[in-house]
Amino acid sequence: MPEVINCRRCKRIFMHTTGPQICDACKKLEEEEFEKVRAFVREFPGATIQEVSRETGVSTHLIYRFLREGRLEVAESSPIALQCEHCGVRIKSGRFCITCSKRLANDMIRAGKSLLESYERNNELSKKGEARGLRYLHGELKEEE
Ligand SMILES: [Zn+2]
Ligand SMILES: [Zn+2]
After folding, report:
1. Which ligand is closest to the CA of 13, given by its number?
2. pTM > 0.85
3. So what's the pLDDT on residue 132?
4. Can you name the residues that pair with 82 across neighbouring β-strands?
5. 100 φ/ψ angles, rounded to the nearest 5 degrees
6. Distance, CA 85 to ligand 2 centroid (Å)?
7. How confident is the model at residue 140 (pLDDT cuts 50, 70, 90)?
8. Distance separating alpha carbons of residues 4 and 39, to the nearest angstrom
9. Is the pLDDT of residue 28 over 80?
10. Distance, CA 98 to ligand 2 centroid (Å)?
11. Residue range 48-81, pLDDT digits in tens
């Protein structure tokens, strides 16, 4: 259902239906900025993000967003890159490098395992308790210790 909201970019009120919460004018503008950045990066693969921003007039913030979204691709040798949020190594898109993504996934599995182990330990204890209770039910209550 269309609703009237403020554009997240220019704050103007517009009729929003679906997609990003920016008005059509801004959407068009952002598209143009993206094209500008892409063309510049292609022409000057050695430019830093500050240089790209200065020459295209597009904020580094937006350039980083293009990178993070995987829309903007830069050459292997380009000084423009995102950094792994974990180890700071340069990456091309997303938030973590491959090594850290794997390590984070492993950590999660390990965390899951230790949770499972403590769960099993608890289970073990309650089983012992049950066994004792069973003996009691059978009328063979004997103290083991
Ligand atoms: Zn707008
Ligand atoms: Zn990393």
Report:
1. 1
2. no
3. 58
4. 91
5. -70, -35
6. 7
7. low
8. 35
9. yes
10. 7
11. 999 999 999 999 999 988 988 888 988 878 888 8
Give me ligand 1 centre to Cα 39, in Å: 24
Q: What is the pLDDT of residue 143?
A: 59
Q: Which residue has the tokens 């292609």?
A: 42
Q: What is the DSSP string of the chain?
A: --EEEE-TTT--EEEE-SSSSS-HHHHHHHHHHHHHHHHHHHH-TT--HHHHHHHH---HHHHHHHHHTT-S---TT-S--EE-TTT--EESSSSS-HHHHHHHHHHHHHHHHHHHHHHHHHHHHHHHHHHHHHHHHTT------
Q: Which of 20, 63, 21, 69 is nearest to 40 (CA)?
A: 63
**Apex CA 56: angle with CA 55 and CA 59, to 5°?**
105
Paired tokens of 12: 């103007």
